[in-house]
Amino acid sequence: MPGLRVHVPVGTRFAIGVVVRIHSDEPEFKTKPIRSTLDTEPVLDAHMLSLTEWVSRDTFSSWGETIQAALPVGLNYMSEKRIRTVPHLFPSPKGADILNDVDLAGSISLEEAEKRWGDKMIQKLVTGGFLDIIEEPKTTMKSESDWMTDWASDGRRLLNELIEDPPKRNPAWFKLAPILMDLELPMPMSRLLDETGAKEHQIRKWIDLGILESRKVVRTLTEPDRRMYPERMHALNEEQQEACAPILEAFPNPAKPFILFGVTGSGKTEVYIQALYTCFVAGKSGIVLVPEIALTPQTVQRFKRVFGDNIAVMHSRLTDRERYNTWMDIRSGRKTIVIGARSAVFAPVQNLGLIIIDEEHDSSYRQEDPAPRYDARDVAMHRAEMSGAVVVLGSATPSLTTLHATAKGLMTLLRLKGRHADAALPQVTVVDLKLYKHAMRGALAVPVHTAMEEALSRGEQAIVLFNRRGYARFMMCTSCGATCDCPNCSVTLTYHRTSDSLRCHYCGYSERVPRVCGSCTQATIEEQGSGTQKVEEELEAHFPNARILRMDRDTTSRRDSHASILNAFGKGEADILVGTQLVSKGLDFPNVTVVAVVHSDTELAFPSYKSAERMFQLLTQVAGRSGRAEKPGVVFLQTYKPDHPSIIHATHHDFESFAREEMRLRKSLLWPPYSKLITFEFKDRDSQRVADVAQAFASVLNQESSDMPVLGPAPSAIHRMMHEYRWELLVKSDPMWSSLAREEWLNRIFKEYALVRPPGGTSVRINVK
Description:
- The protein is α/β, with parallel strands linked by helices and 769 residues long.
- The chain is 33% helix and 22% strand.
- A seven-stranded parallel sheet has the order 12-13-11-14-15-10-16, sandwiched between helices. A six-stranded parallel sheet has the order 17-29-28-20-27-26, with helices on both faces.
- The longest helix has 18 residues, at 687-704.
């Protein structure tokens, strides 16, 4: 039936496919029988099959690639090559031992066999007809175990005695004592940690004391805990109620999507929670999309406070087993509210009633590689239309495309103009770095340093943003000007002092720092520019008594490192948080009163029509981290371009003026939203071949698209990446073009290109974005 995975013959091998339709139309080609069915019930229902088909057409990718993106590991197309014996053939004595081992095992993975007996021997047996190479689905996930925590036989008495005679130093684990008294045990360890906010080693301490005990159990599909805690919801103020009312009224008959446009700290999350609660009470499910779930543990906790165990969290930091189990919980209806990054838009929720897209302007909602190259916002709106669900997009700085859709009446605008409670928008000060060349304290200009010093003396906290990680941007020989470049990409290597290495942030290549220049052999290699590591070092020198945490891709590579850094800062265990744009997303720290942006111009370095918009959004978002409670906040924007429109409008929190000016410019140049960009990317290891293919493809585009502006072809901003040369072509198409019409046009373009393709052009990969 549709939605089942099957094992099918493809040429000389076997592969995994998904049944998408049952029919009785006999094809012209010869068919082969399905080898086996891998599921007892569909992994994709009719709704999800229809959605994935639409995504494949909208993104000009294969339906299989889209289905792969919608399924977790264990249920997707992942397979492995294995070997098995061919019966009734007799090899040489040496091969007989290998065949006997394979025969006893039934089959062995090709990778394991080549490690044991060598790839040449295995290939010889395959060529001789003694072994078959088959493709089998990877083993599906097994039942997960959990640790169930309960009172030990005499645990309550021992706990009371310990409370009466507490440890002298009052250790952190002992602070859990009153919380444990009120808990209803037994409880899974994972839930116990979540409800108490404790670390696992702290719970283990109570187990060592004989007060608690823990036993391993198989994770079963028991009846989920449906309890909610509406009493924990904050009462909405008048402005929030006015914004929330149209959303609640839309549930029976949803129409246009809503855009919740509210300044940072205006309480958009409380509106989301109220809408989700109404949706939940009505027996419907909800999906909450956030830019990067691993970066916003605070957001998850705020939802869990109200919805408890009804929340499922999906993000890239989950293990394969966790992804699989979470997917199964959602599909079975055990979890009815999903919070996750862009891929959560494919979550198999039943009876969908609401989709919320927080920080809808964020570029991470768009999948770039691999295919399908979808935009989660577009997929969410199409899925909602199919399901009869309500869509709410929220942001303090909506994307100009969303704002344009609102102006055309395609979305309903809801406003939150003021911050919640007594919080006021922070004062923003522009610091012209050209005037402070000789008045710097490390990365900070003197007035910024002074303001931070005063804040720290009052026991307040500060955030420093510098959107470049590493210690130095690159290293250069001051004798001959040679730089340390990546051998795989056309970029310089970034210096990381903690590991004393040079790294490429695109392909991952790294090497030790050379002692002498490879070009002139002089020992004159010096650091150029700076990154978050260097800023952290300078802050430690200028604020020796301050506790400093750094948050960038280097310090957050380990699992749960985002949450531990943010929790420590939130608890006041650090005074200054320095980091890349990660520190600008979804953070709510009432004690932060100073925010400093070291270089506000970094976004302008990227060659994109969105550069000004992204800079304004980043500055506005990071400015919103200051003054979120009753304490007034101040934001410093250090820049070499104080007269840039993004800087000027961000200073006054004036999104409308920035949007009007930027939209006027885009309309004159026919940039989105006044067109829809189609990007063709060409990649190959041969620089001349990829250039020839790009030129041939451009000639076809110019012939077939005389009414649409074609830009290029030209080498990409990073011309070589991971040994491949890259070229690009841009087409400005009609923004109202339907997915079907665009797909038909692309098919025609590729058909015409096949007639003029240069020799060897089949090796050049062409991606459509």
